[in-house]
Amino acid sequence: MSTTVSSPNPGTPRPVNAGPGERAAAVSAKPVGWRTPVILAAFALIALVFFGLMGPNQTASFGISTGSDFFQLPALEINAFAGGLVLSIVLLALAGYAVYLKTQDRPAPGWLNVAFIVLFVAAFLIWVVGGARTPAISLAGLIAGSVTLAVPLVFGSLSGVLCERVGVVNIAIEGQLLGGAFTAAIVATITQNPFIGLIAAAAAGAVVSMVLAVFSIKYVVNQIIVGVVLNVLVSGVTGFLFSTVMQANKAQFNSPPGLDIIEIPLLSGIPIIGPILFRQSLVGYLMYAAVLVVWVGLFKTRWGLRVRAVGEHPQAADTLGINVNATRFWNVTLGGAVAGIGGSFFTLVAIDSFTKEISGGRGFIALAALIFGRWNPIGAFFAALLFGFADNLQSIVTIIGTPVPSQFMAMLPYLVTVLAVAGLVGKSRGPAASGIPYVKG
Amino acid sequence: MPENPKPQHAAGETPETAPEQTAAAAAVDTAGGAMEPSAVPATAQSGQLPGGPDTVLRKIFTGSGMVSVLAVLLALVIGGLLIASTDKQVAATSTYLFARPADFLAAVWNAATRSYIALFQGSVFNPRGNTAAAQFAPFTETLTIATPLITAGLGVALAFRAGLFNIGAQGQIIMAGILAAWVGFALDLPLGLHLLLVLVAGIIGGAVWGGLVGLLKARTGAHEVILTIMFNYIALYFLRYLLNTPAFQRPGETNPISPILEASAVYPQILGGQFRLHLGFVLAIAATVLVWWLLNRSTVGFEFRAVGANPKAAQTAGINVSRATILVMAIAGGLAGLSGVAQVAGTEKVLTDGVAATYGFDAITVALLGRSTPWGTFAAGLLFGAFRAGAVQMQIQTGTPIDIVLVVQSLIVLFIAAPPLVRAVFGLNPRRKKPARAAKSRRAATTGGAA
Fold first, then answer.
1. Confidence (pTM)
2. Dihedral pair phi/psi, residue A225, rounded to 5°
3. Domain spans, chain B
4. What is this model's ipTM?
5. Do A237 and B86 touch (CB under 8 A)?
6. Closest B-chain CA to A417
7. What is the pLDDT of residue B58?
């Protein structure tokens, strides 16, 4: 409903628009529903009551600069009550605009939802920090930390994009991340070279993916079954080898040299943006590159057109001479390699050794990011950032002592995803043939 | 995503059907109606290979029952190789592999069999026990661990039969555990009534959590796989939150652990005090009978299966698909809820954030191994319960990590899902299969062209 091509200003290129919602919008000549405006209004009212009227009367302080920036900006000081009130009134106005559009039988444009989410998060943040015992956080640190936590999520969801766009559901993202993390650790330790570890991680992810591909394409086993079972299998194998090999001899097998943070001179000193874009590990830079490459590849190249054709209508693609199952096989393998690289982030960048279940369910959050991002690489990227943000905020919230239990913050990505798939925040629909095996004939 | 992710159940009903063809046929049927549905039921098409009748022997060896056995065998062999690959003795003998290969092979055999013997002794029969009771104690432990696996597995299996992929047993167990435990330690009720209320609370907790997924699926079309995965995490964090609140945290305790359940709220131990086996196992048997009756004898069960086989046809035939979706998820949740009750009122007697352990996820493999039939699930639950129980003993005796169980478990399910692979490994693929298949697909191609 919300992401639509028929938005009043089709000139603005919204990445979210390029998703499969297009088809839905093109098909739906039906009148605009009340759902989106009503949901927006409800959330705006929640914001008004909790963040505005019941907002804490404290000054929330958001540090913008870190010590290493080359110029310092003063911290942002906002009265939580006033800030919450102003933002929630803006939110109400946005919701009102959506209602107005509905009465005109026009759908809410895509930017409205994005703006709504951003402002709602801001109001929430001000409320959380304003109500804390020590109402001050470093915004720069919060955002940089979010990006860091989002790195494996982004790789995982890109893997999901590559697989689902070609018509194979990838529940095994978790297993691919875990396999990548394990292989990166062991190979980097043995070779004493993190770059070889990185390549090995990609290979390991690809191997896990190939099993998924062989079973779901050649043996036509239900893709979800294979995915679920693969997660267990990888968890078992890595856990077994960790207990038998790595723990017995940590120095020889489980102390990988890490990938260093590469700072780009000058640019890395820019407040907020610098640490995010120009103070990353190799894996971090690869993440940005991968998002762009996958997006361009999927939507601007012949390869991408074929991939999407296979994912949307394999029969038609087959008729036009595309080898459906080969396309699926190689795409799924590629997806696994991407997720494997994401897994290497755990052992080569974040932590300096492998432990059991190091991926800790992030493969499933990546799956959520994929859906929330509407099967679009850039959408998935921002969704992963949002989830990384929630994850990071959760730990910060525990430190500064706020009234919101950290468990609810941890729950947030999952709740948001439920809302997303239930169609409460716009329609989210995957590639038509995703999950359906293709039997030629 | 598939409307009907369950090719197995058809195969389970007619064991002599070549399952991989069934799978393929079912896949064709699920292609969103894009293909011409076959006039003959998919299960009936490929019962016999052309070119002469099958021998009885061939039927036995290629049937799905045999495939299950071979799949288990193959998984155990691979697991054994994995054990051997990290064994010290094997590593030592491998240095002179070419000089004396027999040593190496003997070391491999020893490493694997030692672990599996320990597994067996820990799960079925321990010959070193002094009394008969001590000798069979491992078996009661197997039954205890199998209890939550069976009931949660039944929930997953039931949903499978209705074409729903219920990955949410984990969350349903947790929600059931929360409610059951609270009733168990917070209320003070007479004996009997208290336990009954614990049971009811647990079932309701699971049923509501499962039914909610069904409701969302029926109302909004959201995919149940995504919903259940997310609901698992929501339940887990909700539990962790509760265990830090005064209502749930044990007084004077800093760890997230609840008070111990009242004596009147726990399952009685059915074999006396020295064994952990509790009433929950009897209830698991009862639940298996109930699910069997529900699926095979009741109208509701018929509706579930019809929806699972083809939702559109079921809708056309006047079955309320939405109602069936919600109901089957609620019942599945209730069954998983039984596992939650078995955990808090039977095995653990307290509520921690590990209440569901990995039972919810294991339940999926249990249901798959059991081919989504009630008694198959029961048997699979026993097998995996034995693995779990024996693995503890195995780790103590031989140092083989418990994780090997995960490997074997998942390999079993993978192999069972792909019978052609298993038959290929054991060289059982019928020779005449290939031409037969080619002819079949040619036929399909021509009809496809005509349509």
1. 0.82
2. -60, -50
3. 59-123+383-451, 132-372
4. 0.81
5. no
6. B230
7. 57
